[in-house]
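stage 2 :: seqdesign
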């Protein structure tokens, strides 16, 4: 795979380095807390996209074994949607938003339900059918890399470019990696806190280096840039604080949420998916109230199930899976 500068590294080395870092971080943290543990004391679970085939899963297994020193006998690979589904089934009902009928129907034989796993880069859609023996049959699975939450970020960056210009923005992205990462994290937080009822202005903490870079390269103040943009009177920007009219920020969600809703409706027209009437929303982007509101308005009343901490549903479901195996 290529890094941001086009340099190549083997996929197994990249995955292996990430897995090893997470594993070592956990073991070191437990050691600091006085717990003497080793690799062999754990059953390790790695989650993978539902659309991954056997060879991709094997690559992940090899990365864990050869690069992260994890015993293959103590390792499970589980699809993300399956882990999230297990989490929703085992979670106490008071920890799930949705009607009691919908939550109890998850365990009924013949029930068809869709796990909508909305992350940053991708959106995964998996339809399960509950079998008489309690097992799950996968009726449909797909991953879409055009419907992730990064689309909201992209529109924010386009807004930024309309103010500071493409060259200044590109200089910031290329030369200030850590600051760019900080901005990405800030946007993730704001996406979860803004709601359809938000009014006034949304305050975003932006790296002050953007203002400095703009002033150095354009020889004018950021206020002058805003006054010369379509956002004059609607956005203020002082130092590291950008304040945007709430409606402008909420509008950043609409193209993405509209596409997600339309895609779900298209899926429900497929013969093997017809009859699906329960929808589990999980993944980091699913924590956005803007997204939840858009989906619940378009799908059958009371049929959308949203667990508490949707962003951790896959992680916690993986732990439950590991305890069962």
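stage 2 :: out
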């Amino acid at each position: 795979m290529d890094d941001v500068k086009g340099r190549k590294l083997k996929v197994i080395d990249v995955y292996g380095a990430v897995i090893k870092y997470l594993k070592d971080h956990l073991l070191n943290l437990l050691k600091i807390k006085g717990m003497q543990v080793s690799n062999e004391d754990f059953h390790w679970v790695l989650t993978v996209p539902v659309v991954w085939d056997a060879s991709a899963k094997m690559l992940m297994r090899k990365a864990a074994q050869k690069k992260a020193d994890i015993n293959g006998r103590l390792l499970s690979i589980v699809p993300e949607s399956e882990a999230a589904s297990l989490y929703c089934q085992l979670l106490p009902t008071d920890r799930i938003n949705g009607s009691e009928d919908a939550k109890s129907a998850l365990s009924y034989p013949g029930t068809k339900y869709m796990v909508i796993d909305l992350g940053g880069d991708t959106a995964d859609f998996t339809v399960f059918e509950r079998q008489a023996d309690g097992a799950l049959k996968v009726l449909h699975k797909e991953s879409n890399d055009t419907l992730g939450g990064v689309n909201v970020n992209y529109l924010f960056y386009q807004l930024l470019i309309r103010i500071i210009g493409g060259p200044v923005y590109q200089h910031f992205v290329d030369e200030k990696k850590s600051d760019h990462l900080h901005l990405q994290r800030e946007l993730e937080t704001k996406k979860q806190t803004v709601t359809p009822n938000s009014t006034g202005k949304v305050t975003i903490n932006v790296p002050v280096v953007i203002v400095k870079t703009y002033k150095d390269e354009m020889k004018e103040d950021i206020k002058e840039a805003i006054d010369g943009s379509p956002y004059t009177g609607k956005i203020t920007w002082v130092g590291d604080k950008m304040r945007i009219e709430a409606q402008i920020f909420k509008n950043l969600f609409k193209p993405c949420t509209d596409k997600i809703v339309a895609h779900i409706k298209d899926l429900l027209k497929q013969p093997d998916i017809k009859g699906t009437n329960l929808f589990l929303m999980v993944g980091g982007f699913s924590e956005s109230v803007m997204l939840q509101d858009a989906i619940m308005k378009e799908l059958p009343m009371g049929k959308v199930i949203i667990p508490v901490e949707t962003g951790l549903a896959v992680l916690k479901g993986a732990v439950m899976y590991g305890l069962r195996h």
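stage 3 :: structure notes
- Residues 11-32 form the longest helix (22 residues).
- The chain has a mean pLDDT of 90.
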